[in-house]
Specification:
mainly alpha
Length: 224
């Protein structure tokens, strides 16, 4: 069994500053994605904004838990090299969208979109695919939920419950349904100018490319 080296390493690198930011109030603003600061030459924010979070305690916990879950499943199925490619694809696409949309912020959720795409498209097991689709549904729930407290929780819980059904009933569903869910959520979020939608689409492109390459290299060569 593949040891989750990439997952563990990125989890530690992300978790330490993500927790420290609650004790060092200036840390997150200093590392976050800030298009104006990037234009001024602080290009490193495109990297450092991935290791701090702008979603408070719950958002930080959500991102770290999903990093562990999505990361473990993706690395177990695809290996550390493709794990890093997918994580990087989501990060690059999401950061590019955040910069173009002039959307300041922080968090590794855009990079997780690459892993979700890998699970839903490049992995063969129904568990991996369903968990990737579930993560995409959760992103859609957070984008569609109204801002006022009570209704926000109701809408988020309802959509989360619907997404959870993908995991619970995964054996009864055709495997193609999971990438379709990912595409639908990605297109919807991109249409709403949500950088997670672009990150999902970027991750999907990378996952499809890896799948095509894997199939081409695994074909037996005919003997003349």
């Amino acid at each position: 069994m593949v040891k989750p080296i990439a997952t563990a390493s990125v989890l530690v690198v992300t978790a330490v500053p993500s927790v420290l930011q609650f004790f060092l109030p200036g840390l997150e603003p200093a590392l976050m994605r800030d298009p104006a600061a990037i234009d001024a030459g602080e290009w490193w924010r495109l990297v450092t904004s991935l290791v701090v979070q702008d979603g408070g305690v719950l958002g930080t916990l959500f991102n770290l838990v999903f990093l562990a879950v999505l990361g473990y499943l993706a690395e177990r199925s695809l290996g550390p090299a493709r794990w890093l490619i997918l994580y990087g694809a989501g990060a690059v696409a999401g950061q590019a969208a955040g910069y173009l949309f002039n959307d300041p912020g922080a968090g590794n959720s855009i990079a997780l979109c690459g892993l979700a795409a890998g699970l839903a498209i490049a992995c063969e097991g129904s568990l991996e695919r369903s968990v990737g689709a579930f993560y995409a549904v959760m992103l859609g729930a957070s984008a569609l939920a109204p801002s006022d407290g009570t209704w926000s929780w109701v809408v988020t819980a309802a959509l989360a419950a619907a997404g959870f059904q993908l995991v619970v009933h995964r054996e009864r569903l055709p495997l193609w349904i999971f990438p379709v869910v990912l595409v639908a959520v990605g297109v919807m979020l991109a249409a709403l100018a949500d950088l997670h939608g672009v990150a999902l689409l970027g991750g999907m492109i990378a996952a499809w490319a890896l799948t095509v390459k894997s199939r081409s290299t695994s074909r037996p060569t005919s003997l003349a």
